[in-house]
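Q: Hi! First time doing this. I have a protein sequence and I read that you can turn it into a structure. Is that right? Here it is:
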Amino acid sequence: MKKKKRARADKNYKFTERRHSGPAAAAFIISFVPLALFFYAAAVSYATGGQAPQKVGCVGVAAMIVAVLTLDISIREARKEKVIKKVPVAGACMSVLMLAGWTAVYVLGWIGA
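A: Yes, that's right. Below is the predicted 3D structure, encoded as structure tokens:
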């Protein structure tokens, strides 16, 4: 008996018209800026013995503004129909984590912990 060759459906490829979003990719890359600013603020605070409220405050406000802007861009791009969702969702998650981290820094600063 001769074995018949079966036509195998290749499940590794999916042809679609969806593309990666340029603004979402930029927002994902820029969403790492608040993380870098967090490390900078921690280094400044450590170098001054914890007495750097103005410098850390300005850096924190800038980082929160960047996080909010990248979150906005990521959400707008994720809502589009012909966009692959992985990059905008990753950017939004990173932005939310940075917003939560900087909010924790401010709350701990206000309560004096």
